Inverse folding.
């Protein structure tokens, strides 16, 4: 597919990552609700919004054409994304925004590690160096926290799993989001019904709470759509650079707004992660540039 509209594409991509970077500000407003209820409501209202978009676009019939194998892949993606959402909301509401940011900083490294383990991909020396620095950073942060950074590791692994599934599933962005929501919705609705019957739901406790929980649908869908549009117009190397906007903003929020502690040992762990990402990104850009040159040389 020919890349077009690179400037608007970059704007769409930056918009997606900026919105994701501001998620701690939004989800921090949902501290009145249990994290599991927040995730359940998010699943339901995201599905409602995406089904409305598909209906307006006249594309609902596409869901009926999904085969059994694709539904199984959608189920795996749905589980990985639901786990990611749940741990992220818990992290924000429990005051671990910086650790959430760490998860998205190390996500590219986890994705590369998955490639080696699952697909036997061969890595360059630079990529091995980046992974080694990333592993050392986890050790340093484990000593700093007094425990492994579970929130960061689960976020990174679950999102890397989600990304792997999205690479092989044969669905466009809207139908993919809808399929994942359809798989997860019965569990979400069952949990919401349980909370309602037991009088523990926050959804109807006040108009403000209702509005905020309803907003989780469009707030979730908008950056996903911006990302899907950008991915069609912007080279992967550019998207790879843009993705660091999200954890950078989240970390800034955790440190500057939430005043989470950042002792020297924690800064040292993050510095190792940033060094690993610098090596990884530089190597990726170099290989992409060499590939473009090779293609250009072969073109008559």
């Amino acid at each position: 597919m020919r890349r077009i509209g690179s400037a608007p594409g970059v704007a769409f991509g930056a918009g997606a990552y900026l919105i994701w970077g501001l998620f701690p500000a939004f989800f921090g407003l949902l501290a009145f609700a249990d994290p599991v209820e927040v995730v359940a409501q998010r699943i339901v209202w995201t599905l409602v919004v995406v089904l409305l978009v598909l209906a307006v676009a006249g594309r609902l019939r596409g869901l009926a054409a999904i085969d059994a194998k694709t539904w199984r892949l959608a189920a795996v993606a749905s589980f990985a994304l639901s786990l990611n959402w749940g741990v992220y909301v818990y992290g924000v509401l429990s005051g671990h925004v910086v650790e959430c940011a760490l998860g998205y900083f190390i996500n590219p490294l986890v994705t590369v590690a998955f490639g080696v383990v699952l697909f036997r991909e061969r890595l360059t020396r630079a990529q091995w160096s980046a992974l080694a620095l990333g592993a050392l950073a986890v050790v340093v942060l484990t000593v700093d926290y007094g425990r492994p950074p579970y929130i960061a590791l689960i976020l990174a692994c679950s999102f890397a799993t989600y990304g792997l599934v999205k690479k092989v599933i044969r669905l466009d962005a809207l139908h993919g989001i809808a399929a994942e929501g359809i798989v997860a919705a019965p569990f979400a609705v069952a949990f919401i019904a349980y909370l309602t019957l037991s009088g523990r739901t926050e959804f109807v406790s006040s108009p403000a709470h209702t509005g905020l929980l309803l907003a989780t649908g469009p707030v979730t869908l908008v950056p996903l759509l911006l990302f899907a549009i950008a991915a069609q117009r912007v080279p992967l190397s550019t998207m790879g650079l843009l993705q660091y906007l999200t954890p950078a903003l989240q970390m800034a929020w955790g440190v500057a707004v939430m005043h989470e502690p950042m002792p020297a040992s924690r800064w040292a762990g993050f510095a190792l992660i940033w060094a690993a990402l610098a090596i990884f990104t530089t190597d990726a850009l170099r290989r992409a540039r060499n590939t473009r040159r090779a293609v250009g040389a072969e073109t008559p």
About this structure: The chain has 13 helices and no strands. The chain has a mean pLDDT of 90. The CA atoms of residues 50 and 174 lie 7 Å apart. The two ends are 19 Å apart (CA to CA).
